[in-house]
Each structure stands twice: as C-alpha cells, then as structure tokens.
Specification:
heterotrimer, A alpha+beta, B alpha/beta, C alpha+beta, A: SH3 type barrels, 5-stranded antiparallel beta sheet, 1 helix, rod-shaped, B: alpha/beta, Rossmann fold, 4-stranded parallel beta sheet, 13 strands, 37% helix
Amino acid sequence: MCLGIPGQIVEITDTDRMTAMADVSGVKREVNVACIAETDPAELVGRWALIHVGFAMALIDEDEAAATLKALEHLGEAQETLEQIREGAEALS
Amino acid sequence: MRYVEEFRDPVAAKALIARIAEVTDEIGATKESPVRMMEICGGHTHAIFRYGLDRLVHEGIEFIHGPGCPVCVLPMGRVDEAVEIAEKPGVIFTSFGDAMRVPGTKKSLLQAKAEGADIRTVYSPLDALELARRHPDREVVFFGLGFETTTPSTALTIQQAAREGVENFSIFCNHITVPPPIKALLDDPHMLLDGFIGPGHVSMVIGVHPYDFISDEYGKPITVAGFEPTDLLQSVLMVLEQIRDGRAEVENQYGRVVPEHGNPVSLAAIADVYEERPSFAWRGLGEIDRSGLSIREKYAKWDAEARFGIGYGAARAREVAEPEGTECAAVMTGKIKPTGCPMFGTQCSPETPMGALMVSSEGACAAYYQYGGRRSPEAAE
Amino acid sequence: MTLRGDRVTLAHGGGGSAMRDLIEEVFTGAFEPDSMEDQARLEAGALAEPGARLAFTTDSFVVSPVEFPGGNIGSLAVNGTVNDLAVGGATPLWLAAAFIIEEGTEIALLRRVVETMKAEADRAGVRIVTGDTKVVGRGAADTVFVTTSGVGVIPPGRDIAATHIRPGDVAIVNGVLGDHGACILAARGDLALSSDLESDCAGLGHIMAAVLAAAPNTRAARDCTRGGLASALNEMAEAAGVGIEIEETALPLRAEVKGTCEILGLDPLYLANEGRLVVFVPEAEVDAALAAMRALEHGEGATIIGRATEGPAGQVTMRTLFGGSRIVDMLVGEQLPRIC
C-alpha cells in the first residue's frame, strides 16, 4: 500500500465524478481528484500530485520538495568540505 | 521523472551514507551492538533491498523489518473466504495483483482463476466499479486490502457507487491500521527497538500525530520517510541524530507529500464508510484489538461480507495454523531475519512459498530472496 | 473474389471449397508459395557446403490484443522465429506458418495479419513457404493463434553458444528495453493506461549478420522476449557457468517505460521485448560490434550494459545507482501490477 508515484494533472475529464488525466513521464491514466480538489478542480491543471491506485491523494508541496533538496545539497557540500579537510590533514601527516 | 529522480541522486546518497557512518560512530554502535531501527512499511523494506541500502550503511545499523505488509498479514482464512466468493456463479472477483498468489488453506486466487473462477487483476477499485457498470448482470466484488494509504480509495469508491446507485458492486473489506501493531510490538518485552522509520504514504492520509504515542509513551524516535533512496537515508540519519541527542520525537522527512494533519477528504471518507472491528487477526501477530475496519451498516449493500453471508468471526473464519516448521511470525515481528528461518531458500522460495512473506513482493523473505540471492540459512550474513 | 462473408466460419475449416477459398484469398495470395503441394521443396547451395549446419526452430504466438501499436501477432510470428535463428548465427531462410482461427474472426483482420507477415518476411529476407489453417469454435481460441517454424543455415566453422561466454566478455543490447511489454500492458486496456509507446517488434537478422562480420569472435546472443533481459541473462549465465554483472545506470529505457513501471510497480528488466537481443563479445571486439550495430535500423541505440564475471556461476547481479549491488533473479511466474 505504499506504491505511489508523482504525476502531473494535465486535464480535468469529469467535474461531477471529480476525475482528471494524470501524466507520469508520458504515460496517462485517469485519476480521481476528490482528495486534492479544494475548490474548483480546474485549478489543479498543471499541479503535481501523489498518485496511488487511481487516486490523486496529496498535492506535492513544491516548496517542501525544494527545501529537502536544498538540505541534501548542503549536506553534500558539508561532507565534501569535511573530506577535503581530512585529505588535507592526511597529506600533511 | 520529476519528484522522483532528484531523490535518487547518487552524490547526495554518498554524502548521507558518510554522515550516517559518522553519527553511528558517535553513538558507539557496532555490528555486535547495533542500533535497531524498524522500518514499519513493506514498501520501505522493498526499497531498502532494491537499492542495497542495508549493505551501504554502517554495519552498526540493523534494519528490523516491520509488519507493514498488508498482504503478508492477511489471515489465511480470509484468503479462503475470498476464493469462496470468487467461485460463486456470476461473480467477477477483482483484486490488486499483490494478493493473487497468496496461498489460502487450499488454493490461491490465481489457482482458483486457473480452475475457472472469473478473477481479474485491477489497478484501482474505480476500475472494479467500472466493471460493475459494464456488466449489470454480474456481481462485481473488490478485494479491499491495505493500510490507511489504500483505505480512502475504497471508501471513496463505495460512496461513488452509492451516489450512482450501482448495486451489483461490493467490497470484501480487509483494511487494517498501522498504529495498533506498532503498539503491540512496543509492548512485547522481547522486542528491542531503538527507533522507527515511519510509513510515508500511510502518513499522507493520517498525518504524523497518530505516532505521538511512540515518542510520548515509549520514548522512541520516529521519522516519517519517503520512498526514494535519499528519503530513506535522510530519515535514517534523522533517527540516528535523535538517538545521539537523547531525543524522542515524531519527525517528518517526507514534507513534500505528508501534511502534518493528513488529508481531510480521505479521513472524512474513511469515517463515513468504515468502523473499527473490535479486533482482527494478523497473520504472525494474532488478534490485535481495534486494528481492522469493517463497512458501516448504512453501506451494507456494498459490503461483500453482508451480501455473501461471510462475517468476520463467523463459523467460516477460523484460526488457521501456520505451516509446520515456518517462522513467519518471528520474521514478521523482526525477531529473526528471513535467513534465520530453516525453510528459507530451501522448502520456502518464491516458486514454492510456504507463507505470505515469501509470496508478497514486499514481504521481507521475498525481498531477501529476490535481491539478496538464494541465501541458505547457513549462509546468513 | 469467391470468398463469401466477412467473418471466418467453421465451414472455412472444413476442408472443402470454402476452406480453399480462404486459403487462396487470404494466405497463398499473399505468401505466393512455389506450388500448392502439401510440402515445400527447397534448395539452398549454402546447405550443401561441407560443415554447414541446418538451424531449426519453432514458436507459437498467442498475444492479446492481436493488433497493437507497432505491430500485430503476424509481426511477432515472423520476427520471433527469424530472431531465434539469427541469434544462433544462422542465416534465416524459410518459415512455415500455421494458423488456428477462432470462429467469428473478421477476415479483414486476418488479411492485415497476413500482409504484415509478408512485409516482415520480405524485410528479413525470408520466405513463408508452407502453412496450415484450422478453424475452431467460438471461445476455443483467442481470435487467432499462430505457430511459425523456421530453418536457416549456419555456415561452416561458426559456433556461437552461451557456453562460450568467458569472464570479461562484454554484454551489448541493440536499443531501449521493455517497449513491447509496456506497450502491450497499455494496449490490453484493463489498466486504463495510455501512452505513445509502440512495440519494438523487429527482425534482428541483419544486425546479427553485421555483428558477426565485424566481431568474428562473438560468443553468444539471445533475444530478450518473455521474461525480459533478466531472463535471457540468467539463462546465459547458467549455461556458461559464469557470473554476469550489469550496470543500472547503463540500461537504456524510455521515460514512458520507466513511468509505466513506476505506476504499476514492475521491474523493466523483466518486461518482454520483441526486437531486442543481448550479445556477448570479447573486449577487443566491442568497438567494432557497436559500430556495426549502430549503423543499422533497430541498432542505433546499441549500448554496453555489463559483462561476464568470475562471480558465482549462474548469478546475475546489478550494480545500482549508488554502487550497491543487488541480484537479478529469474522471474517466478508472471509479473503482476502491485500496490505495495
């Protein structure tokens, strides 16, 4: 029950049934957007959502995604600096 | 693939692995005396082995594979009941692919299909509902299983069936919840756990506060994790830092998908359609109070148990003993690794599974076997 | 045209004039055999050369849906058998084609299948020289089942086989993997996926001939059909008694195939291909083999994916994105879409 994949909402297909077309790398599948449509479903077009068993269950928070990536970047830089310091120390010893 | 490939960055992974090693050393954990970290969700177990993360992180970290595999914990008696429904004339029985190969006491759904039952794999309960619309003369039943990630989808589908008046459709409900088995494991004096990797997609629905009891009452750290390799590694690091700092908090690594309070529409649908069963049997764990869901009276028309006279706990739902010699329960609760089971790789393999942990692709035994090779019990690392 | 009606009936399988009409209008009209005897009578100088060997193979085709983006059961039936001959180092020559047709099948569909077979046979340089048709009652077959048998010639002195693979030999595939499998999953309709994916169905005779000419010490080749690349590699590793290690980062995959796999929880290593082979060549001949493949249609995407190793015999492993390692086991049963 964990298999979810981010997909982009590209088109609303039925406003009564709350369905939309989601695109995952060029593969399209109709999904139910009841969980993520706060107001007008049309506003979802272009947004990214987590798709699970034919339902868009959560909108991807683009700011949070960016923040996570930034944290990883910083960690990467910090580790690189540490390694350079280590290598420098070894070279001197 | 956006929001996926960025979280598979090998450079970031390398940095995380290095940092994890440093913090593990700071804690003083070693292979002989490791940090015991449980990943609750079967999808996380699968990801750990697919990317070889267990072998990439410091050997002072031991992953204990938790019971978060809804197919693995399905009681054999329930599989028998699913087969029973499927074999009734006029029924189209639909199921996620995961459940097709789980053996009941006599056969699996796949075997029943070979014998002539109309059993079809579907990707979504909505597809099952569509089948019901297209075949008004047939009874379409959907095998509803899964944790809170999947529960809203069946709830919303039932609500839709009710709205549209589609009456030849019902759900055989086997949905279960995550917090109760975690509590059961924490209450078990033989389970020694130092921290948890929390289920990211369950939390997408229920939020992070259902896990407060883990830190508040049991003093263990938990980080809710995404499913890509850097998500898992980052979560491992966060749990380690909590341990090092003597903290016990609920943290959310998967903020891009998991909202603190979950999804209101999903939670409302679950509350509208389902109610808690007093208890439900978990294969390997026994009966756990208030851990399973059944369909409310108001939606009885769409409840396969009501339609087919199969109530949980009825004469037919019987306690089924595990095959002799298997250690499914011990593996399920993380007490031993799959390689610790005498049948692993010998009598029990994906071709001839003795228990559900080998049949379900996210069961710990299947993951070990598939990604780790044919390790016989003696060759355990 | 004496063929009456637009659907196949049991009369068309009865052995009488209706059957003769069907055969003449649909089959022999397209395949143009030399004679209408019960057997084809064939000569090939190449067969008579001392040391030359006959290669002989057969395969049945049961795909559903019968027509799909990029081909139909006919293209699979011709190319599948041509490829089974070609990967053994044989020059494919002649095919036999047998059809089991379900009552009620549209004759127009049969024509399309047969026309495709003729076109693919011409492209592959083979002739369909004999065949058979049977008609069975409704429900006894899924539209049409096709069995093709093929013969070819292996020139004297050539012996390519998995048993020749040695540690250090390099594994090359001719292009992106999994297109056919992913296309069929979408085409079946029950998963409600849509994409622009097309089957990769293609004859590989020309590619094999070019590789063997450019890299005369080519060890072995196999086409990656059911069970995908993983199954072909496992079979080869087992036969050769070597290990095989592939690189995850080297696997060529279309975005849509990756997307399909992510949605359904499938592993692209196990998806079927119908125009892909994996060939093992010694290190020294890799550049020549790659150049030869890339110059041809269906070989433009040729790329190295791994190599044979001293590793545990029969074991296929994959170095993951992070330098970790996982085993690529044989598939058990069928890959089913999963939610977990």
